[in-house]
Amino acid sequence: MRNKKIIVFLLCVMVLTILSSYAETKKLKRIGQYTFARVKGRIPTAEVMKMLVDRYAGDIKYGFDLAGYGDLYLPFLDQLKAASFEEKALPVGDKLMWMLFRSQNRVKVVKDIEWAGKAPLEVFVFNVTKDYKKYEFVMPRPCGNIALRSITDMELPPAVCALSVTPAKINLKDPITIDMSGTQMAASMEVDVIGPDGQKIVTHSFKPGDAAKRMSFDKPGVYAFKGRAVNPQGKASTNPCEAKVVVNAPPTCSLTTSCLPCKDYVGRPVTIDASASSDPDGNIAKADFEITDESGNVVDKFMDNQAPFVWDKIFDKPGIYTISLVVTDDFGAVSEPCRLSLEVTQKRNFISVEGGPFFARGSHGPYLYAMLDWLYWITPYKVDFTLAGGGALALKSDPWKSIFLADATLNYHAGPVYFGGGLGLTTEVKEGRDADFELVGKLGYDVFKTWSNTGSLVFTVRWPLGSERSFSKNHKFALGFRVLF
Question: What's this model's pTM, rounded to 2 decimal places?
């Protein structure tokens, strides 16, 4: 039992001794016994040392990984080729962080070394930089060991701020992208957003891995962006870092009509005018008109992309219409709608004159007749009621007399053709004949027609009421031309 305790005690002492030996600085009293690379001669040149590094590149990589500095391997090789070697003598007591050496043909690393020789250690010194740190390496002469002596922070240059804001011009509520990903040497970045009134709206913060944001604006104007960046050592950027974005102001529409209300305007052009629409920072590019009826149904649409943005619209039916207008500027911004209610009425009362040859009774005595008519549209352009009065001038002598004519008719229109009938009165056409109350029939054809005038050919036939008057001997007929205005 006692022997076991002794053995355990001795093992603990050995472990403590080993641990203490690792914790303590290793004293290096001589150099050249465990060389990393064999060097012929006592004082090799810097070129020979570089050649040795090329020859043992694989062992160097293994040694750097073993020392925990594997990320330095490639910078070490790249920079060593162009490095300037400096010859130094390390004083006794100088320390090294680690050293590569070879023992039993194996690459090994010893850390925390103190030079404890009798004289200063002659070495080649060169520096490797990475991530703004300077690594001082030494290679003792005449052996080819590689040792890291020190690591010092280099002074970083100020951050270089780069700010991009796109697009440079937008419409309201369209997104923009604020991008600082081009900034260099920065640990953090910020952008102040300044409104059109010069007041700061917001400050956006960025990190190198997250250097972009999106935002939008609900007011027009010129917005300024001022960026800054700070490097890992707290030094702020000094280069200009600004951008601007123009938020396009939407246009304002204006809507007028040539009549309001539009009395007797069915069939006549109504001018719908958007020419007074304006844009505060550009030009009007197009105007979109829309007309709806009282039920909200779309009656017509029109788009005009040339100034003065005027639409001459002919309404075919009477009614109350709503006209809507939206204008678009030259950057695509759209105005709020303008609306206008418009009552369009139809002309129902017309005066007309007509005239032409007239023939009376069985003798077909020739006359020239002329009448003045009053027409009222019961159903516009479908059914009319007409009162007419005038006279017929006899072209034969006695017994034929000039006569007075009058009639009242109801007429139906089917496109350019119309027909109808009613009652009429004719005074005596010759001695011994009384005035006649007559049935009147009409057949007409519209030769031309506008909203205000119509020209028609009219055939009229008249025959007396009463059984004692035969149609063959007592009829009258006329072929005339009527102008309605």
Answer: 0.60
